[in-house]
Structure prediction request, 542 residues.
Amino acid sequence: MMNGPASAPSCVPPRSAIILYGTETGTAQDLASEIARCLERQRFALVDVLPLDSVSFNLLSKYALTVFVLATTGQGEFPSNARKFWTSLLRKKLGPTTLQDVRFALVGLGSSSYLRFNWAARKLAKRLKMLGANQVFEVCECDELADGSTERAFEEWIGRFGHEVLRRWPLAEQAGDLDAGGHGGETSRWILKRADEIDSLASREFNGHLQHANPSRPDSFEAKLESNDRVTPPSHWQDVRFLRLSTPAPIDYQPGDSLAIHPENMATDVDDMLLLMDWHSIADTPLVLIPNPAYRKPRSPVFHLSSPLPDISTTTTTTTLRQLLTSHLDMTAIPRRSFFGHLARFTTNTMHRDRLLEFTNPDYLDEYYDYATRPRRSILEVLQEFDSVKLPWCEVCSVLPALRPRQFSISTETIFELLIAIVKYRTVLRKVREGVCTRYLAQLPVGSILRNVEWKREGRFATFSRDQQTKIYVQDRLREYAEEVGSVLLQDPTAMVIVCGASGQMPKAVRLALGDALRRAEAEQFLARMEREGRYKQETWS
Ligand SMILES: Cc1cc2nc3c(=O)[nH]c(=O)nc-3n(C[C@H](O)[C@H](O)[C@H](O)COP(=O)(O)OP(=O)(O)OC[C@H]3O[C@@H](n4cnc5c(N)ncnc54)[C@H](O)[C@@H]3O)c2cc1C
Ligand SMILES: Cc1cc2nc3c(=O)[nH]c(=O)nc-3n(C[C@H](O)[C@H](O)[C@H](O)COP(=O)(O)O)c2cc1C
Prediction:
């Protein structure tokens, strides 16, 4: 419930908000955009959406409302694009009134399969309050493992949030009715324009913005695929690949670090999309992404930082639709509910429009789950079904989500070696579902003559859980070698444990097995100390 000061200081635009996200795999950014759309539908005059690390905390008091959307990563850690902001809040010289003019709401993203559930959001809320900030709305803690997952908790929260915002910042009488569920009045902030229609001065200015918004990632590099071998027998249900990647210069990484790989969409999917939307004639025309002149809201000083595509400047600022659809925009993601609202803007077929808007209606959440989430229907498939929808090419960057890199754990020190389970599964839909990144990797040709490098297994105790009648899991193997494992952990101060794999029961079972191997009452404290010293690392995913 709202309990903060009734009004913002007079210099603050009364209906202004900044939405700040901290994300590792993109969910928090999606939800931040959804909150922004909710506030724009409430006719907020100024809404900025930015990664936490791109702003200083001094900026927050310049908005009537700050909404944080923050995932937890690692073992209760802040995501990499939120750590600088978090560290800045920990400065000793800050006091109990530093943030007294800040009113905030907070959405935390986490998974209860981790010991430190929603730790980052909880730590942030505590620190903000210590510094005098006013929490003006109940915290939303999303749990990926809960029934209905992150989405359901968020949808319920945003419904209540919307009502409270309206109560606290009522609309001026002349503002007219709100566009309740849909996205009718929405204007994209950024649009694509043909490069030859932009004069060079303006284009330089826009390019400057994009470069400023997206400094090329300092830790990104090129790698060459040296091998790409299937390690599971063809008769086995799952295709698991062993990939070796080399780099021109050595990189100082440790086994257990992970590598983020940017996938590409399949050329056939790109062609399908171009055909479906009648975009073939413009597919290879040079384009630039510019602030939309029709976006009539006041632009804040940080507007230029809010480009929807995090990596656009790492290629070129001049791009093409084909390039965007191949490398930057996700067509295979499961569409969020707000996506259906966007589509409804671009069809004249009333039956299609009504159905699309139904999916955005919180009263029909189950319809949405049954249609999109449970069968894992992709954006492209939705567009193929609602074939009356014709997206204007200039708006595509505001409608399709960004294609995100996927992480893979590195297993050796001399050359990047990755073990990758190719994601392929069935749902009620006829077509087999495939993971966007692993599908891309699976078909990548090897780029050098070192094609047949083998995986040497000496010194490793491999466990194949389902290769025999009785299942043997890694925790069983640890128990089998309990004496050796226990003595290495106790006697070698450099010994490390790195747990990688699914985030369900496995990490807990492994920890219990390690505790048993230590054969001492304070085994858990011992493992916790290893963790503090960075010698117990867990990289698990769901
Ligand atoms: C730090 C870290 C380290 C990682 N290390 C590795 C590693 O070493 N090796 C590795 O293989 N992966 C690893 N992963 C996972 C990896 O990043 C990818 O998420 C995974 O490989 C899938 O990527 P994708 O793009 O192919 O699939 P996506 O297109 O992202 O699809 C994956 C999604 O499909 C859905 N899905 C998958 N299977 C099913 C099913 N049977 N039924 C219903 N839905 C399903 C799930 O919702 C899942 O989130 C790691 C992840 C992290 C965060
Ligand atoms: C490597 C990794 C570590 C995670 N660690 C935690 C954790 O310690 N606590 C928690 O509550 N959730 C944890 N999670 C779950 C994420 O917070 C959750 O998946 C969230 O929805 C991710 O949001 P994002 O896509 O914005 O990064 C972890 C997820 C991953 C992949």
Summary: Residues 1-10, 201-216, 449-459 have pLDDT under 50 and may be disordered.
